[in-house]
Amino acid sequence: QVRLAESGGGLGQAGGSLTLSCSAPGRAYSDHTVAWFRQAPGKEREFVGNINWNGDSSNVADSVKGRFRISRDNAKNTVYLQMASLKPDDTATYYCAAESSPYYYNPQPTTFGYDYWGQGTQVTVAS
Known about the structure:
Elements: E1 3-7, E2 10-13, E3 18-23, E4 34-39, E5 46-51, E6 58-60, E7 68-73, E8 78-83, E9 92-99, E10 114-118, E11 121-126
Parallel strand pairs: 1-10, 2-11
Antiparallel strand pairs: 1-3, 3-8, 4-5, 4-9, 5-6, 7-8, 9-10, 9-11
């Protein structure tokens, strides 16, 4: 099973910014949709957003709309989650995941179809 790798987590300040990266060492997934999810302690995993294989289409959850943006650089085999105007409620472990079917894109907030996951990176936002 392909393992993705998230990086860029850490401690942020309320109102500040952080950028997370997602890569797949040893494997290109430039033809797959990639999504970001997050999970706070005691809460269910939450869809943050996703981006299709070539970056033409993306979607983010209402809870982060206007603050978070997803982009990708297929030449670098990397997908980014750019987070701005951070809030303490954004504190969570953030995961990236790749859709199993190449070129398939579903903007809906679901974990269905995402078969390749990273181990997560912790983001903590201080007030």
